[in-house]
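Tutorial, part two.
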Amino acid sequence: MDYLLRDSCHIDVHYGRFDLHRLISSAVVTQPEEGSAPQLGIEEGGWHAAEALVLARYFMFTQVYFHKTRVAYDVHLRKALKELLPGNRFPRPIEAELSRFLEWDDWKVLGLFNGDEAGEHGRRIIERNHYREVYHTPEVCNDQELQRLNAVKAVLGNLLVAEEPAAKSWYKTGPSDINVLSRMRHPSVLPLSKYSKVIENMKGNNQVLLYVDAARREEAEQRMKGGA
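Running the prediction step on this input gives:
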């Protein structure tokens, strides 16, 4: 709840907003089955607020967190950090090197980028010269659309520099397991998806974004027109 509202405020979008006060006032402790561990849930009267929370998270992911440009900078940041770290990784176990790990804050990393120590991808971040998206699938792909994706990848060949799938991200779509407590129905505790058809029918986002170097974007588009 916290990061959705903070992010929507700082980037000035409405996607992450929902009725926070209604949701909090509806919060209860539930016990889905006799003898099971207590779980946080909501009263039946607040299930629309919970539905709005799930949808806000979905919209923020599709419109902001998995936005094509933001994802491109994820690619550059990962590669730049590998360039900076000895052996391309933090020492393992990290706990043994905790003090060194905690030194890697934003200021340290940006300073190394500005000092041109992060290689090509550090320079791309500083210069805003990011990879460009040339193709994306729908948010929910069927087999035919995945075949089309493979055809585009084959046509792009060596021009393809990054392939970013939503399915491998932290965000997972599916029926919500938020418990809803009803004092009038039996059984008295049901998952939110049993109340909301919208939530019940949400499908996993398996969108894929394909990227090329900005300097070769026109060439990539010509290839796709001619062969995919």
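The first helix runs from residue 2 to 10. In part three we will examine how such features are distributed along the chain.
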